[in-house]
Specification:
single chain, about 375 residues, Hypothetical protein af1432, Serine Threonine Protein Phosphatase 5, Tetratricopeptide repeat, two-stranded antiparallel sheet, globular, Tetratricopeptide repeat protein, TPR-like_helical_dom_sf
Length: about 375
């Protein structure tokens, strides 16, 4: 059965290359002036899921830059939690006293998006999007955070589109198995489980396994952008074939499990056939993340299947370039791209080392 390989969009890959250097954000004319004010609030020291709060904010902004979002949406990504929200207590700016300061820094339009994103009910928003509960024009009435009875706010179609796209970038940057365990059934979180009883699940960072259901949920968020009132308001993210296809929960979970079984060496190790078939099935079930395809490229190389390795490595590189963040959080996005380029180079040139120790000094040429 033919595998669903992606061709490499060289224009997209070129944009991704420009974002591999962590200093990219310091050279952005819109984002760079904001950094000193944000950094002085200690975001580089705050813990946040798979890294620090700085890593998270930069990573969300990176995906939005890669997706060519307008500057106010990129600024929203960089500042999307600075007033705090229902999910985190990381309040870096006091919404009661410091809105004017942030408005002076990023402009009223961007600050309005940030404030609204922080104060609205994110859970209700995600649920309404997943249920396609939009107004006819693509707008949405939403509750604000706080005790009942809650105030409501009317989102414009552009605000809905922006918040969907930022939510996609926000989720792909941070979600991995530890969050999946403690934040079960998000956005409808299971609050019944006590920490002392489920202490093993709470040990951070845990096994760093990729999530089992979030890619499916992200594909549904992306599909919502095809609503007639939302389509065309903002650049469409280049994931899920420009947000036109979805992944089922069942396929998402199965693909993640199959991939992880190879990573954990739960397959026979004497030859490569079983691991190859398992990874190929993972790619068939979920062809929208790069890591299974990248590992498969290396397995193909080990088996002497250079032509197949080229296809797998190119496809993996396309997926990494489309997301701007890693699905498998064990290493950073730029590291996944670097190793994938090594695999593609080796497959193209037929130079995969025969000796194990030679893997230690592979380098990209040109």
């Amino acid at each position: 059965m033919t595998l669903p390989w992606h061709s490499l969009d060289t224009t997209l890959f070129s944009r991704a290359q420009q974002l591999l250097d962590e200093g990219w954000i310091t050279r952005d004319p819109e984002l760079a002036p904001v950094l000193p004010v944000v950094l002085e609030r200690g975001v580089g020291q705050d813990w946040h899921k798979a890294g620090t709060f700085r890593h998270h904010l930069y990573g969300v902004a990176r995906s939005l830059a890669l997706w060519q979002q307008p500057h106010d949406v990129q600024l929203l990504g960089l500042l999307h939690s600075v007033y705090g929200n229902a999910f985190v207590d990381l309040v870096k700016f006091d919404a009661r006293t410091e809105r004017a300061r942030l408005q002076g820094l990023v402009g009223e339009e961007a600050e309005h998006l940030v404030h609204l994103f922080c104060t609205m009910s994110r859970s209700q928003f995600i649920n309404k999007v997943l249920e396609r509960d939009f107004d006819e024009d693509g707008g949405m009435e939403l509750e604000l955070n706080g005790p009942a009875p809650r105030e409501t706010v009317q989102l414009t179609p552009r605000e809905v589109a922006a918040f969907i796209i930022v939510s996609m970038a926000d989720t792909i940057e941070q979600w991995f198995s530890w969050q999946e365990e403690i934040y079960s059934r998000s956005p409808n979180v299971d609050t019944s489980r006590k920490q002392a009883v489920h202490w093993a699940a709470s040990l951070w960072p845990g096994p760093m396994r990729p999530p089992s259901r979030k890619i499916s949920q992200l594909s549904q968020l992306g599909l919502a952008l095809q609503h007639p009132g939302l389509a065309g308001l903002l650049p469409m993210p280049p994931v899920f074939n420009r947000c036109t296809v979805s992944v089922s929960k069942e396929d998402d979970a199965a693909a993640s499990s199959l991939y992880w079984s190879v990573i954990q060496l739960d397959q026979p190790l004497v030859d490569l056939d079983v691991a190859t078939h398992v990874l190929e099935q993972a790619v068939r079930l979920n062809p929208w993340v790069g890591e299974p395809q990248m590992v498969l490229a290396q397995v193909y190389l080990s088996a002497g299947r250079q032509d197949d390795a080229v296809l797998a490595a190119r496809s993996a590189l396309q997926c990494f370039s489309a997301w701007g963040n890693a699905w498998d959080k064990r290493v950073q996005w730029d590291a996944w791209i670097a190793w994938t380029r090594i695999l593609l180079q080796s497959a193209t040139d037929g130079t995969w080392p025969e000796r194990l120790d030679k893997l230690n000094n592979l380098a990209l040429r040109g």
